[in-house]
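Our working data are protein records whose layout never changes between entries. Getting from the letters to the tokens is the skill we practise here. To make this concrete, we reproduce a full record directly below:
***
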Amino acid sequence: MVREPLQQTELQAERFSGYLEKHYEHLHRPHRHSFYHMVLFTSGEGMHTIDFDRFEVKPFQVYCMIPGQVHSWHFTAPVDGYVVNFPDHFFRDFLYNPYYLERFPFFSGISAEGVFQLPASLQKKVPALFDELIAAALDAAAPPDMNRVLLLRILLLMSNAVAGYPAKAIPEQKKMILHNLRRLIDMHYKSIRLPKEYADLLYITPNHLNALCKDLLGQTAGELIRNRVLLEAKRLLINVNKTVAEIAYELDFQDNSYFNRFFKKYEGVTPDEFRKQFLK
């Protein structure tokens, strides 16, 4: 798997056509970033695969990805728009909140939540702000906080635009428990696999945790944990430099055969078959 080479100490913003020209060789192959990656298309056609979910590229569609997600592009017509990359610490000192970006629904790390259509009311305003951001990023005399303010305006405008998308309102307490559960699973999925252990970390009962997950996500807590392990397994399998045995060890499986049985049970193919199918 390709990991995009990038000196990621500050924000980078540019038109997508120029970005594509510079990185064309590997953008069509599965790769992952160590930074936040956001794209707004203003024209073009094609497909975008994020964590093995496919989306059709359309004008005024926004893609938001967090560090670690795997994606690739397949364009069928000339594309343009805007791309912004920034490190996870970009807002940390500015806002004194290490978890600030987690409040935005499109930075959840769930591919379907990170793709949305920009409403008509913002189709002039947001691109104009992207143009300002590009100009500020190129201006060596501009104060660094100018980039942060402009990007924050874009994120807040987009967040307000997608705020009405959920089918039902979620009480804040339930939303916070779910948010903390996802964060804990991301931190510990390799070593903690039992819902009871996550319930203990959240100071709630396993029954309460399962009821909440079923109500809000239609999944049990166990399925949520398992799906996170499977997602990471698939991300790692794209890296041809790692053997299946090495991936099994990295994901804390007892042995390679157990990992093979686990993967085939839920994906319908063995890890080797998945790797061959996807890379083909």
Notes: Confidence is low (pLDDT under 50) at residues 1-8. Strands lie at 2-3, 12-15, 31-32, 36-50, 53-57, 61-65, 70-86, 115-117. The chain has eleven helices and eight strands.
